[in-house]
Amino acid sequence: MTTFGLIGYGKIGERHVEHIIAHPEAQLHSIFDIKADRLNLFRNKYKGIQTYDSLKGILNDPAIDIITICTPNSTHADIAIAAMKAGKHVLVEKPMAISKVDCEGMIHIALKTGKSLFVVKQNRFNPPVQAVKKLVDEKKLGKILSVSVNCYWNRNEWYYKSSDWKGKKAFDGGTLFTQFSHFIDVIYYLLGDMQILHAQMANVSHKGMIEFEDTGIVSFLLKDSHAPGVLHYTTSAFQKNMEGSITIFAENATIKIGGKYLNTIDYQSTNGFDITDLPAGAASNNYGDYEGSMSNHDKVIDNVIQSLNGKVEIMTNAYDGLKTVEIIENIYQVAVHTGS
Ligand SMILES: NC(=O)c1ccc[n+]([C@@H]2O[C@H](COP(=O)([O-])OP(=O)(O)OC[C@H]3O[C@@H](n4cnc5c(N)ncnc54)[C@H](O)[C@@H]3O)[C@@H](O)[C@H]2O)c1
User: How far apart are CA 134 and CA 10, in angstroms?
Assistant: First the structure.
């Protein structure tokens, strides 16, 4: 039995709680949140699970094997480092942190303490992503020729007003960290590292709501294949999420993983290896007023437990988590901001 402690009982924390409780080899031992109302809500819903009102309290609990961190982006590094120093393994929500230096600090402590550090990248488990990963690993696609990534979502005023950290540069980091880091991770997972060439950004429809861009156009070069790539992202799609897709043009196939969150194969023309009989994927994380990525947190929790037991490979290790943060940081570094 793997015993979990959870820090940050917010929107995604609720999902972690449900999936930890549902897993036959997991026990949710305790939780901590800085907000008393969140702790009260938890106590009313779940009886018999310990709650703490301090970080020290939960980290000193000897019964916990692993801490899952579901707090705002900017807090991940300090909490993860404190947890590993207290002798706990760590599962941290995406993004791993909002600077590469912070990720390096986390990895340094993981190596020093011998604790495992897992990062949540649940889109890797999406059936179309797994199907394309298999084709890549089997070298069926041939040379990668180019790639195009479209992230067209909607985040409205209510979304930002109802959060005390989303949209704030110091806590959130930027639209690429909170909304679209999953897509950067999946490009990295499927096609390897990228060199950022140009980036253009603007806040086209969230002025006064967020402290950074809501839209960006990025051009990059895939380091392994030297294939050119383009990423167009926005949270200004009219009224609702429209598309989240990656189209790969390769020597032996053109494949578009699409839907709203990389959940379908929208197009394929292949040299005799069409993807068929995809297992049905999970629905999206639906938060009532807005929609997130595919809800695969059950698979993330299972992977953590089975890899701690030495039965499977870690799906997303800390180095992979760092790479996404590094790529995003590189994009922000070269970005030209245009007014509109
Ligand atoms: N994997 C995904 O698809 C996914 C989806 C949503 C959010 N996330 C990530 O999960 C994290 C949380 O996002 P959310 O939407 O649940 O936010 P949220 O604001 O709904 O929840 C955050 C919770 O953390 C608590 N908190 C804040 N600072 C704390 C601290 N220092 N110590 C303890 N508790 C603290 C808050 O009181 C709140 O209850 C973010 O990093 C976000 O990027 C990932």
Answer: 35
Q: Do 235 and 91 share a structural domain?
A: no
One domain for residues 199 and 172: yes
Could you tell me which of 166, 193, 173, 184 has the C-alpha nearest to residue 99?
173
* Same domain, residue pair 77 and 36: yes
Please tell me the distance between residue 180's alpha carbon and the centre of ligand 1 in angstroms.
16
pTM, to two decimals: 0.96
Omega into 95 within 30° of 0, i.e. cis?
Answer: yes
Are 301 and 20 contacting, i.e. CB atoms less than 8 angstroms apart?
A: yes
Q: Which of 59, 92, 122 is the last residue of a domain?
A: 122
**Residue 118 within any structural domain of the chain:** yes
CATH number for the domain spanning 258: value is 3.30.360.10
In DSSP terms, 152 is beta-bridged to: 234, 243
Specify whether 139 is located in the same domain as 101: no
Confidence tier at 278 by pLDDT (50, 70, 90): confident
Residues with beta carbon inside 6 Å of ligand 1?
A: 7-13, 32-35, 38, 70-73, 75, 93-94, 120, 122, 163, 178, 285, 292-293
CATH number for the domain harbouring residue 28: 3.40.50.720
Q: For residues 164 and 167, what is the distance between their CA atoms, to the nearest angstrom?
A: 9
Alpha helices in 99-211 (DSSP H): 100-113, 127-137, 157-161, 169-172, 175-178, 181-191
pLDDT one-digit tens code per residue, 102-130: 999 999 999 999 999 999 999 999 999 99
Which tens digits make up the pLDDT trace of 49-86?
Answer: 999 999 999 999 999 999 999 999 999 999 999 999 99
Shared domain check, 276 and 165 = yes
Domain that holds residue 7: 2-122
What is the distance in A from the centroid of ligand 1 to the CA of 166? 10
The residue behind tokens 């994009």 is 331
